[in-house]
Write a sequence for this structure.
């Protein structure tokens, strides 16, 4: 295990240990290194801003202050470019703007050498993504989904027919290269899939959703999964 990976794993173990803490001996056994190495790692975490505490004597050890924010994770240039590529290729994904801001926060804390190598490698990755929907439309449906409020949309179907719908947002789904807002259509009194690219206007109302669930949409296709499963 590389030192950067060990430092991250070490801080995660300390976080999970809560108020009990961990002794240096136990940490050394956990990572198969010497106690001296663990103490150097702990000192490095503290220098990086991690709020470490230590308790001497029998039953003592090291831990992280409750509720503390962990220091930034060190990335390799390849990992940094992987994140850049992912958000660049998914400009039409829900909350894409927030993803860009999140990745930028990570890149801002990289050491200069890693950042320079990442920028050079990023220049060798080209992305041609789809044209995203209107920023105003995306903001409205994202807010409605997060707050679980009814969103009023002006929608043009594939047939060319245009209508105004009040929709209770249930989920976002990517299918056949496009993003869809899936929700309970109050006009049709049924669950409907709306292509985000066909939503001309959208505004969040003050009406709360009535509680339609993801289960009402049905199981995702065999090759599709909720994004939290992809993070496991």
């Amino acid at each position: 295990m590389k030192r950067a990976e060990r430092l991250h794993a070490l801080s995660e173990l300390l976080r999970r240990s809560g108020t009990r803490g961990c002794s240096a001996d136990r940490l050394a056994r956990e990572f198969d290194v010497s106690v001296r190495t663990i103490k150097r790692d702990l000192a490095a975490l503290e220098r990086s801003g991690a709020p470490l505490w230590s308790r001497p004597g029998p039953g003592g050890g090291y831990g992280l202050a409750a509720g503390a924010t962990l220091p930034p994770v060190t990335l390799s240039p390849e990992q940094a470019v992987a994140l850049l590529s992912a958000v660049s290729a998914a400009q039409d994904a829900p909350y894409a703007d927030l993803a860009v801001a999140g990745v930028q926060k990570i890149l801002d804390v990289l050491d200069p050498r890693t950042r320079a190598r990442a920028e050079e490698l990023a220049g060798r990755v080209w992305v041609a993504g789809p044209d995203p929907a209107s920023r105003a439309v995306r903001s409205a449906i994202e807010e409605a989904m997060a707050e679980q409020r009814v969103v009023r949309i002006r929608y043009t179907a594939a047939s060319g027919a245009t209508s105004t719908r009040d929709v209770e947002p249930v989920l976002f789904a990517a299918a056949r290269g496009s993003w869809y807002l899936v929700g309970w259509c109050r006009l049709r009194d049924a669950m409907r899939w709306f292509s985000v690219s066909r939503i001309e206007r959208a505004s969040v109302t003050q009406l709360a959703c009535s509680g339609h669930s993801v289960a009402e949409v049905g199981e995702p296709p065999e090759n599709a999964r909720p994004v939290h499963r992809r993070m496991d």
Q: What stands out?
A: The radius of gyration is 24 Å. The chain has a mean pLDDT of 84.
